[in-house]
Amino acid sequence: MRQYSADLTPPWKKPQSVPEVPAEPGLVVEEPGSGFCGAVIRCEAGTVTLEDRFGKHRVFPLEPRGFLLEGRVVTLVRPASGPARPARTASGSVAVPGARARVARAGRIYVEGRHDAELVEKVWGDDLRIEGVVVEYLEGVDDLPSIVDAFAPGPDARLGVLVDHLVPGTKEWRIAQGVTSEHALVVGHPYIDIWEAVKPASVGIEAWPRVPRGVDWKTGVCEALGWRVANTGEAWKRILDSVHSYKDLEPQLLGRVEELIDFVTAPS
């Protein structure tokens, strides 16, 4: 007598198997129920934490068929323990344990202001020491022509300069064009001040305030956010303390600093 299966569900109605994917840090997935898309930053027993491009974090349960990977349904699973991942510097580079700082190159990177220099040091400091690149700051772009003349950049002493709010047609833009050469590179970011290059979410605000023309930008920001206006240095410390890695900075700044480091350290 022929035996029949008790399962009478048609094959096309049976749930299809989906791949299991380890929730490795950096894996970008989407949670279809909420539409939240982000990179895995942490996976613990039963949950996974995602970070979206604005720096917002959400925690989701590790449920079967619970995520989309490149549009395909997958089941995220906790990664198996294995070799430790290489440590990273704040800039995202692979850390070199025990590496000594290189003797300073003749080349330099100049940035526009002390706050700019402190931010670059915090994120790229480890990389710059290994490469032997010194960062100094300008008191103002007006001083740039005399600084470049005195520095006399050449094949073995390249000069890179980062300028705030470098917009075509402005006085700053014309000065930058006048000193740019084969061995001197001037680049800029679109932000009025380096404060604005820190992602608002990292600082704990929704957005950087719009400051009316004629009002000092830092003072206007402090007023709008309810911070103490009398001490912008205190405000900057608060902002700088919120920066832990390159993920806390806007891409427009990241690209320009990396460009300058590559330029200054390029072989003669």
Fold and architecture overview:
The structure is a single chain. The chain has 268 residues and is of the alpha/beta class. Helix content is 27%, strand content 20%. The chain has seven helices and eleven strands. The chain has helices spanning 114-131, 144-151, 171-179, 200-203, 217-225, 232-241, 251-265, and strands at 20-22, 28-31, 36-44, 47-51, 57-61, 67-69, 72-77, 108-111, 134-137, 159-163, 184-188. Strands 2-3-4-5 form a four-stranded antiparallel β-sheet, with no helix packed on it. A four-stranded parallel β-sheet has the order 9-8-10-11, sandwiched between helices. Helix 1 (114-131) links the parallel strand 8 (108-111) and strand 9. It is globular and about 70 Å long. Residues 1-5 have low confidence and may be disordered. Residues 1-20 are annotated as: Disordered.
Give the SSE map:
Elements: E1 20-22, E2 28-31, E3 36-44, E4 47-51, E5 57-61, E6 67-69, E7 72-77, E8 108-111, H1 114-131, E9 134-137, H2 144-151, E10 159-163, H3 171-179, E11 184-188, H4 200-203, H5 217-225, H6 232-241, H7 251-265
Parallel strand pairs: 1-7, 8-9, 8-10, 10-11
Antiparallel strand pairs: 2-3, 3-4, 4-5, 6-7
